[in-house]
Hints:
The chain is α/β, with parallel strands linked by helices.
Amino acid sequence: MEEENEKILEAAVCPFCACLCDDVVISVDVAENKIKGIRNACKFGVEKFLSPQNEGRLKKPRVDGKETDYEDAIGEAVDILRNAKKLLVYGLSNSGYNAQRVALEIAKHKKGVYDITESICHNLLYSELIKGKKPFYYALLDEIRDNANVVIYWGSNPIVSHPRHLSRFAVYPIGRYAMRGVLDREIITIDVVDIELKKISRWFLRVNAGEDANIAEIMKQLVKGETNGLRELVNGEIDFDTIVKLTDRLKNAFYGVIFVGLGVFSSENASKKVEAVLSLVDALNKEGVKFVLFPMKGHFNVVGAVQLLLRETGYPYGVDFSRDRIFEPGKTTVLDVIERGAVDTALIVGADPYSSFPCDKARKLRDMPLIVIDPFESPTTQFASVVFPTAITGVETDAIAYRMDGLPLKLDKIVDSEYLSDKEILERIYEGLVGCL
Length: 437
C-alpha cells in the first residue's frame, strides 16, 4: 500500500537499452520528488533512473556558450535552421517515438538528410536484406523465450551490454518448451576474445578476427551435408571436429536463435560475416530446423526510429529529402554527407557524435552551425551553437518506445522536471520554422 508521501510503480519500463525491461518496481518520495527505491533493474537501469541527479546534466539552454532561456534559444535555433541550405538531422535513438516524428518533419520541411545511429551500428544487416538474396528468419523475444533450446551469442556480450537479456528472454527464464529454464537450453558463444559468457556456455568458440564468415560458411556446408574440402578451410584455434560437433547440435535443435552483436556487424570483413550468418540460418531452416537470427540492438528506442522511417519512407535510415526521398547507403548516410560537405547545418538529438565519429568527420561537424538537444553535457554540446537541456525520457517525461524485437511499450513519467522534453523543444522549433513561411 502506498503511503501518503510515497508512490510505487509496479511495472515501470526501463529506458536504458533496447530490452526495455518492463518489470521494474520503483518507489518515489512524492514530497522530495525523488526516486528512493529501485528493484529488478540492472546497474545501468538504476543509473538511468537516478540520472536526474547526475552532476553532468545541462542546467540551462545556451547560445554561443552563454546561458539563456528556452524562448531565446528556440528563436536562435529557428534562425539557424531557416538559413541552412542543407540540414542534417541525426541521433534520435534515445528519444521517444513522437519526438522522432517531429524531428522527421523538420528534416522533410528543410529537404534535408535524416539519419539515425542505426546507419553506423547495424547498417550492413539492412544492406544484405535489401539485396533480397536471403530471407530473414525473425521472431519476438517471447517466442524465443518459450521455444529456444539452442541459444547462440555471436559477437555479442549481453552481460556487459544488456545485463538482463539472459534472465528475461534467452537463457534463464522458464519457457513453454524449456520448463527448467537454463537446464533445458544449450548456450553457445562465438567471439574473438574470452568473455564472461564463456563460464555458462556449453560451447565456446574463440575465432580469429575476421574469421567468422569462414566458420559460418563451413557450418552452412555441413548443414547441407557437404564435407569435401572443408577440413582444409579451418584456420586458427578451432579444430574441424569441434565445428562438426557444434553443427550437429544446431541441426538437432528443436528451436534455435543466433543473437548477433556488433562483433559481427562492426568488424573486419563485416559484410561477408553478415551474409555468411544469414546463409547459415537459411540453410538450417531449409533443412527443417527452426532457427531465427536476432540483432542485439543497443539504444532504447533505436528500433522505434527504424520503424518510423520504414513506415514513412520505406527505408531504415539515411534518407535525403532533397528530391522527394533518396536512400543511397554510402551517399545519404551521416558520415558520408559530412565527408562530402553535402550538409552545412546539423540538428543533433540525444547523441554525441564528437565522441563516436572518426576525428576527421567530427572536425567537419564542428565547423558548421550545430544545434544539440540532450539532457547531459558532452563533447558535442561544448562546440554547439545552440544547446537545449531536456527532461530525461522515461524518467521525467513519458513516451512510446519500441523494444528490440519491435514491440511498442509505454514509458511512464516517474518524477517531475523543470526541463522541457525533447518532443516539446522540437515542436516549438518546427512551429517557428513553419511560421516563417
